[in-house]
Amino acid sequence: MIKKEMIAMLLAGGQGSRLGILTSKVAKPAVAFGGKYRIIDFPLSNCINSGIDTVGVLTQYQPLRLNTHIGIGIPWDLDRNVGGVTVLPPYEKSTNSEWYTGTANAIYQNIDYMEMFNPDYVLILSGDHIYKMDYEVMLDFHKANNADITIAAMPVPYEEARRFGILITDEDRKITDFEEKPENPRSNLASMGIYIFNWEILKDALIKNAEQPGLDFGKHVIPYCHRNGNREFAYEFNGYWKDVGTLSSYWEANMELIDIIPEFNLYEEYWKIYTKSNALPPQYVSRDSVIEKSIIGEGTNIFGKVYNSVIGCNITIGENTVIRDSIIMNDVEIGQNCTIEKAIIAENAVIGNGVTLGAGEEAENETDPTIYTHGIVTVGENSVLPDGITIGKNSMVSGVTEESDYRDKYLGSGKTFVKAGDER
Amino acid sequence: MKELSQKRAIAAMPVAGNFRAIDFVLSNMSNSHVSKVGVLTQYNAGSLNEHLSSSKWWDFGRKQGGLYVFTPTVTTENNFWYRGTADSIYQNLDFLKNSHEPYVIIASGDAVYKLDYNKVLEYHIDKKADITVVCKEFPEGEDTERFGIVKMNEDCRIENFDEKPMVAKTNTISCGIYVIRRRQLIELIEKCIEEERYDFVRDILIRYTDVKKIYGYKIDSYWRNIASVKDYFRTNMDFLQSDVRDYFFKSYPEIYSKVDDLPPAKYNVGSNVRNSLIASGTIINGTVEDSVIFKKVFVGNNCTIKNSIILNDVYIGDNTHIENCIVESRDTIRANSYFKGEGDIKIVLEKNERYVF
After folding, report:
1. CA-CA distance, A354 to A334, in Å (whole number)?
2. Answer CATH for B266-348 from 3.30.390.50, 1.10.10.10, 2.60.120.260, 2.160.10.10
3. Alpha-carbon dihedral sign for residues B127, B130, B135, B137
4. Contact criterion met (CB < 8 Å) for B269 and A293
């Protein structure tokens, strides 16, 4: 009989629309992070490092990149005879067919998958946070408290607590009440969206609430279990944890990696982050280049100057090009004599010669002022920018653009320019 | 090569930042759709075995074929080490006998090159050869003393084969890559061992030069053997040239290696890197010029590294000067050290304890 003590269910179906153009073609968990990684590498690596070898990855929005990245799980050692990683997309059923309508609904539709492994506990994770966490320690806490449900929670400053779901506990960390994005928080323990359930409790709660539209853990399942008198505990986590849900937090989290001793340290031996790398060769740094305070991925050729930046794999940066405070994802080509400041350039983009990104004064973005902020210039994946153009701050460009698309080779601050058309 | 090969087989020598020498031949095999590969190792096989602990990196983890590592074993009939190249094949002759593939490619793990063995095989069949030897013409004046020298006729049949002669008759060398029919190989090897001869080159290639049809297959692409310090150093430095990098890394087919899951290389304030190759997991705080830095190297503040090769997992303390050196892997260089190779390349082999953070 197949038996796993704890299996993980990783929710990776969300779009993450606040990342703007970065998630127009890929699900948020597949967005590149930290030079060579993708966001989903962090929870997947946490799983294998915590001794969890059975992970169901629930996909829905734009799953292609996610599927090819995960494959059969070799990079994370999740290619197993029993268990391993399984990608779980929504599927057609004989009586009805529906998309995953909510976090818990997605799990509900895969009860059969979980049942196969006969688990004692099920760990629910989301694929959009950057952190290192030993889920086994959390499970020990869960067992020690004889809990039915344990929710990982992180103390946040009170001013920020109103952005989160807040857990109110007694001194034994037993949860007594919840508040969703409260005006006047009574506690500063924010739920991290990481749950350990006793399998029987979870199964029962999912089946009982199956009819609830948009069945969600935070809104429905956890409160339901609370009303039923299940023992719910908050597991306090004090390590690094970053929600990279917005462009500015995404940019910030990347930039934190280049500090001398980063708060989130990728260089630790005993908690490696694994990823599927398609580039092996070393990087080449030319005689005239300057690199300071940056991390750079494999196979990249640098002929220019790079300061305070996170540079991915297989990138070419041309001569006399200066890059500052930017994030460049894999397979990007950047020409000569460019000046690039505070930009996020998504995968496979081509930047011509003499291009300036991040010029001039800041101005509010005209289409999505809440997404394209903090002066960041964003270039979508597979985009092409022709030679000699200048683009201002808080702006976004996507598509294969030509010189004739720009007036006087210039796109001012706060502009959004999406050119539809054939993929390159 | 003594100092460096004290630690590992030459096939396991790190090359070009992220690779080991054997990756090139294994990738060539894989890219030529040779799915069954036996690796014969004996001398200092530790690093090599570690590198080959999984065959999936070269795509050999297959039901049909696979990667087999053969070290000498003691059996009731045999308790010798491999007494020579022919003997190493003889001791694993059952592997050859139990295979069904008609041809065998014999290659060594100490050369850096790209080659489609199918082309050699086509040539071999075309020439109706008994053995085909891959050869390369060295430019005039190049040192050939470490190699076997072949002399071919107009039809490329090898007329004369000298192993490491004092005076070379030609500047065409054998690359140590052979194609031969499996049954032919078994027959030759069995006969060879019967006569208590154990070396493939001396006792088969040279002895049979006039009897068997031995042909040379000339290559003019990049090929370098790394089995001397000078050549090892030069091969690594070749990768600072963009045409060499483009040939190996940017054009089809690719070279594969074991994936180490190291984080991206990190350049802190004060780093000054020029014309160098930097592998992943490395952290740089100092100056690096015209050098190849392998994986997981730490270069301290105010260091200067010039025209050197720093192998995997080396820690270099602050204010250190290293010039014209090869620094052995897993080494720890104390702060304020000074190493400079005068004339020749100096091998740095400090055995300091690593300060554990």
Report:
1. 10
2. 2.160.10.10
3. negative
4. yes
Q: Which alpha helices (H) appear in A50-181, and where do they start and end?
A: 64-70, 103-108, 111-116, 135-144
Tell me if B277 and A258 make a contact (CB, 8 A cut-off): no
Task: Kindly report the pTM of this predicted structure.
Answer: 0.90
* Common-topology check for domains B2-250 and B266-348: no
* Chain B residues with CB-CB distance to A77 below 8 A: none
Is 3.90.550.10 the CATH number for B2-250?
A: yes
Radius of gyration, alpha carbons of chain A: 23
Whole-number pLDDT of residue B3 = 63
Burial class of residue B162, CB neighbours in 10 A (0-12, 13-18, 19+): middle
C-alpha distances (whole Å) from B95 to each of A89, A274, A360, B65, B189 are: 45, 36, 70, 12, 13
Contact B278 A35 (CB under 8 A): no
- Cα distance between residue A204 and residue A107, in whole Å: 12
Instruction: Report CB contact under 8 Å: A291, B273.
Output: yes
- pLDDT confidence tier of residue B54, bands split at 50, 70 and 90: confident
**Residue A353, token pair as written in the block:** 């010669």
Give the integer Cα–Cα distance in Å for B329 and B297. 9
Q: Model ipTM? A: 0.87
B10 touches chain A (CB under 8 A): no
Alpha carbons B39 and B61: distance in angstroms, whole number: 14
pLDDT in tens, A141-160: 999 999 999 999 999 988 88
Q: What is the DSSP string of B181-193?
A: EHHHHHHHHHHHH
Q: Could you tell me the two tokens for B203?
A: 């006792």
Best A284, A288, A314 residue to mutate vs chain B (most B CBs within 10 Å): A284
Q: State how far the Cα of B109 lies from the Cα of B13, in Å rounded to an integer.
A: 10
DSSP codes, A6-29: EEEEEE-----GGGGGGGSSS-GG
